[in-house]
Amino acid sequence: MRQRIAVDLWKRLAAMLSCLMLLHGSLSANEVSDGERLRLARFTYASSDPVIALSWLNGRREYTPSLVQAQALLDTGRVAEGRAILQQLVQRGAPGEGERGTVWLLLARLAMADGDAATAQAALAQVLKFDHGEAREQAQYLMAEAARTEGRLNQAGQILASMKPGYWTALGYQGMASSYSEIDRTPSRALVALRVALAMAEADEVPQRSLELQSKLLLRAGYVAMQAEEFAKAVGFLERVRLDSFETPLALYYHGLANARRQNQRAAMQSWHRARKYPLVLPGVSDAWLGMGIGYSDSGYLNQAGEAFLAANAAFESEQVTLAQLRAAVASDGAYQAFVLAPGVVQESWFLASSQSFSQPRLAYLLRFAEQSDSQQAIQRLAELEKITDWLALRIRDMDMLQSSLTHQLDRLSRPAAAESELMARQQAAVALQLRLSALAPQVSGAQREELKFLEATLADIAATKTSMARRLEAAKRSATRLLALTVSGIERLKQLQDQTQPLYDEALAALDRLAVTFLESETRRIEVALEHTEQQLAHLYEHLALRSLEGVRP
């Protein structure tokens, strides 16, 4: 149901964007050449602004399909139009050597989304033919994934072995590790695949992406080793997880658990103590709070265990208050205001936030919420609609100012000025003098006649000035009237687009609110379960202490 609503929303938005981009193209400078427009479109698309990129392309004098146009259409949800552009590019062979692989890769992804495996594989084969860069690596990864998910692990392994070391190869071996974990009783092959994936990730040329993937792989390797009860190996993997990654809290919890299974309670308690400093929304933190109490209990420190369980109980109850406040904020202000625009969030790029920002519960919940693909799409859709709304409001304000200026100018042109009246009187006097000079002409001769001719010419120029000025005045009034009509029409069209955007914006807000409410309800249930476990542990501990007390007073 949600997917249907999202698709319908994007279709309606695409229709509105078409009108918006045509209007924007008409307002852009006509002097910009087609080549410059294409370069500007590439720049704005690279700046994550596909709408404006399309507006530059729509303003071209001669239409030619381009890769950036197809990419921008796909990004704005206009899949059919984007696919048509890609097919035109394939038929024409227009893209350069470096773009052909990308074109075929996009077509392959579209075919995969449609469930057309045969077409996807044919398109991926074309990528290998035309591209030798990252598009080729992505194509090989997709081919390996298709083979792996169909159970052809040997073929998938052969494809991965032929790939260059890097990010996509690492992802492929990570998938192989998952498949091995499902079919093998021992973790040997899964751990080997994860070790290879780590080596491939280290060769990635994008440092931040490489570090994030390495942390995920190390966490996975540690978990696999723990499941096989190879706790020393698990500790070795988990100790390499970066302390500023999103996986840190869960890695610390697993690290403590592995040490506890090795009977190293001191190291386990240290790891859990560090994990407790992170917000409870992050995986592994609530388990670490419980682990502290269990660790003290297993070590025989029952009083400290009670204190740890009480501290966990207080932390979970406090988190329930935080969740209740967030639910109330979503109910009153909406999820976008409560999460994305809340104070302390808009000051930084939340999607690039480091673990140092995890101490802010609201931001931590936003990061956890944005892990879900539905949430990411809803936030992006709302942000784009807000950008369009702001753009429309700005253009309406500019057009209002232009309308005011043209109205004032037209009013001045429509009212005869004092100078114009004076010029009319002078023209009438000049005509009268010209008539009198014409009557005197037969009575004079020689030099005087030449002087009279000069005076007649001067008076004729004066008489013609009014007629010329009147023509220019009428032309200026016609031009101002035409521009004013265009401006009024433009304002009406912009307001129509604004009226069309508002329902889409409200619908996107409501969709995000529903997702946020569902997420917060699930988090509330998770904390309630953790609180119940804590209370159970406290009850068992008190029962144990009571029994020991009774045994101590027996004769």
Walk me through what this model shows.
The chain is an all-alpha fold and 555 residues long. Helices cover 80% and strands 0% of the residues. The radius of gyration is 37 Å and the shape is elongated. The two termini are 70 Å apart.
Number of strands: 0
Envelope shape: elongated
First-last Cα distance:
70 Å
Estimated share of beta-strand residues: under 5%
Tally of separate helices: 22
| Multimerization state | single chain
| Helical proportion, percent range | over 70%
Structural class, from helix and strand content?
A: mainly alpha
Question: Regions with pLDDT < 50 over 5+ consecutive residues?
Answer: 1-29, 343-357
The major sheet is characterized as:
none
Rg, rounded, reads 37 Å
Note the run of SSEs as H and E: HHHHHHHHHHHHHHHHHHHHHH
Mean of the pLDDT scores? 80
What structural keywords apply?
555 residues; mainly alpha
Give a short synopsis of this structure.
By secondary structure, this protein is mainly alpha-helical. The chain is built from 22 helices and no strands.
Topology:
Blueprint: H1 2-27, H2 34-46, H3 50-58, H4 67-75, H5 79-92, H6 97-113, H7 117-130, H8 134-149, H9 153-161, H10 167-183, H11 188-202, H12 207-227, H13 231-238, H14 248-261, H15 265-275, H16 285-298, H17 302-333, H18 335-340, H19 361-369, H20 373-414, H21 418-440, H22 447-553
Helix pairs in contact: 1-3, 1-22, 2-3, 3-4, 4-5, 5-6, 6-7, 6-8, 7-8, 8-9, 8-10, 9-10, 10-11, 10-12, 11-12, 12-13, 12-14, 13-14, 14-15, 14-16, 15-16, 16-17, 16-22, 17-22, 20-22, 21-22
